[in-house]
Design a protein that fits this description.
Elements (H helix, E strand, L loop, with lengths): L3 E6 L3 E7 L5 E8 L4 H13 L13 E5 L11 E2 L2 H12 L5 E5 L4 E6 L5 E7 L7 H10 L4 H7 L14 H13 L4 H22 L5 E5 L6 H11 L2 E3 L8 H16 L2
Parallel strand pairs: 1-4, 4-5, 6-9, 9-10
Antiparallel strand pairs: 1-2, 2-3, 6-7, 7-8
Length: 265
Amino acid sequence: MNYFGGCDAGSTYTKCVIIDETGKIVSSVISRSRINPVLSAQDALTAAIEKVAELNSAEDLKYLIGTGYGRNKVPFADENISEISCHAMGVHVTDPDVQAIIDIGGQDVKGIAIDTDGTVKDFAMNDKCAAGTGRFFETMAHAFEMSLDDFSKLSLKAKNVIPITAQCTVFAESEVVSLVGEGKPMEEIAAGIQLSVAKRCFVMAKKAGAVDNVTLTGGCAKNEGLKQAIEKVLKLKVVNLKTDPQLMGALGAAEFARQKGMERK
C-alpha cells in the first residue's frame, strides 16, 4: 500500500494528513505552529507518520505536498500548492455538493468558489487587516479572560446584540474592554463581535459566488457563535463537514499528492 501526505504549514497551526491509495485518511495531526515553519512541519509530519505502522519517515511517502503560509518550508515535499487550491480540493472530496467556502485563517479570510472537479472557480481574499481572522478571535477571547472555545459559545446565550463599530483589531479590543468595564452583558458584546466578523465574511462569500450554501474551513469553523452569525448575515445554510474543517487544507494537499503519485505508476 502506498501512502500520500499533505502538510498545511499555517501561521497559527500546522496540520498534516496522510491518506492511502483509496483516499481514506489514515492519520491526521493538528499542532500549534512554532516560529520556525520547518520545525513546525517536521513536528506535524513526525507525529502523523508515527500513527501509520508501515511508515518510518516522510521519505516513505509516495508523494508529499506542502501548502499554507510556510508551504515552501515543508521538508521532503515533492512540490507545494497554494492553500486556496488545497482547501477547495479538501472540501470537494469531503462533500462534493458544497460549492463555496469561507476560510478563516490565522492571518487572513478567503472566499473560495469550487468547480465541479474540485478546482478553484474564483476566490477573494482579505489579507490587509487582522480583523476577522483567527488572531482576532484569540485577541477577543483574551479580552474576555476566557478560552477560545468558551468565547465561541458565549454569543449563543445573547438575547440582544451590542454592535462593535471598530474595524481594527487594536481598536476593537479597546472598545470591547470599555464595554465590559461599563458592565454591558458579555454575551451581547460577544454577539456583536461575531456579527462584525460575519459581515466581513459576507463580502468574501459574495465575491466568491456563494448562492445556496457555504461551508467554513480553518480553526474558526469550530466557532459556533460565528456559524450562527454567518447564517444570519448571509441568509445561507452553513454546511458542517464530516471531517475536521481545520484539516481541509492538509487533506486537499494529500489528495493532490495521491493524484500525482498514482500517475507515477
